[in-house]
Amino acid sequence: MDSHAFDVYKIIMEADKLRLDTLKRMIDILTPLQAVELLVVSKKLNLCLHEWGKRRDFQMGITQLLNTQIPLTRDPPSESKP
Question: How many domains is the chain partitioned into structurally?
């Protein structure tokens, strides 16, 4: 199992390196203004997908299911002094 996990780790690292290399090459091709616009739009897309995923999970009840399995950690009630 450890070798499988290591293989998956290597694949993830290679994919991340490919993603960064591609982004660097794209930025080299673009003008500085285009590069900034690309990075801004990419970040907006990432945030929108994250919010969409959270809403979808909530609508499907996945978030509620996960919350029931994870105990809530709250501050202990404060003791009232007489």
Answer: 2
Both structure tokens of 66: 């996960």
User: Residue 35: CB partners within 8 Å, gap ≥ 6?
Assistant: 26, 27
Task: Summarize pLDDT for 9-60 with one digit per residue, the tens.
Answer: 999 999 999 999 999 999 999 999 999 999 999 999 999 999 999 888 888 8
Same domain, 25 and 46: no
Of the candidates 45, 46, 24, 44, the one whose C-alpha atom is nearest the C-alpha of residue 35 is 24
CA-CA-CA-CA torsion sign (7, 10, 14, 15): positive
- Provide DSSP, 17-57: HHHHHHHHHHHHHS-HHHHHHHHHHHHHHHHHHHHHHHHHH
- pTM for this model (two decimals): 0.55
The parent domain of residue 50 ranges over 31-67
